[in-house]
Specification:
By secondary structure, this protein is mainly β. The chain folds into two domains: 50 residues, no CATH class; 195 residues, Exo-inulinase, domain 1 (Jelly Rolls, Sandwich), CATH 2.60.120.560. Helices cover 9% and strands 30% of the residues. It has one helix and 17 strands. Strands 3, 5, 6, 8, 11, 14, 15 and 17 form an eight-stranded antiparallel beta sheet that branches. The longest helix has 24 residues. The radius of gyration is 25 Å and the shape is globular. 30% of the residues are buried.
Length: 273
Amino acid sequence: MRKKLSMIIALALIISAGCASKQTAQTTDKPIVPPTNPDRQYVVTESGTWLIHDMNRPAPEIIQPGDAGGPPSDAIVLFKGDSLDGWTDNRGNPSKWVCRDGYMESVKDSGPIKTKQQFGSCQLHVEFATPSNVQGSSQGRGNSGVFLMDEYEIQVLDSYDNITYPDGQCGALYGRAVPLVNACRKPGEWQAYDVVFHRPTFEDGKVKVKPRFTVFHNGVLIHDNVELEGGTTWRGPHKISDFRPHGDKGSIALQDHGNPVRFRNIWIREIKD
């Protein structure tokens, strides 16, 4: 009889714990402090307070990852190779960049091209190719850039057998952070950046939370949660910009640096700060 009674009590406790986890999920404005029990651990989340391995905990949204290189089903496609309709020049006019054969290409003296849509923290995928006909050296060879929020640059450069200053080579957070390795492919071959970017915030004209970057170049980690100490704008041979206050969102921009660099398969996923 005692054994049966113990089993009934244990079953009742399990059922009540499940009900309690469901109830806590409905109230997220004030996290519930779970009871102390060394055999039962809880975690407090935005969706509620849950037992470890709780079957009632909300599961992640299901998306389709797409083919290698994406885009996944929840991405915003910025450029798929057939139109520059979602892009403008630096003054909001149609860009003079060329769109053909599934890619866009910079045109000398046309200025940057940037998205009409604006973004903050995000996951960004960009594919690029520097010219197969190699000309110039150092910064004059396959030079361009990918800008987050139209402000923070990941350098694009032909750094395959090409010596330049390390904080300005391909993959550098320009003037701020040297890539962990040089993962460049040969000139003319398609390459890819996969970027996780957390935007900065400002208060009273000063940076409150600094921007952070994680970057993969051709699938290789080259920046691991790097926090920028200032801006990435060129100010002279041995100078760089400080932070400039800006809004919560900005354009994705690609640089015209006088070299015909190509871009394709550009997509983005917005993420929470």
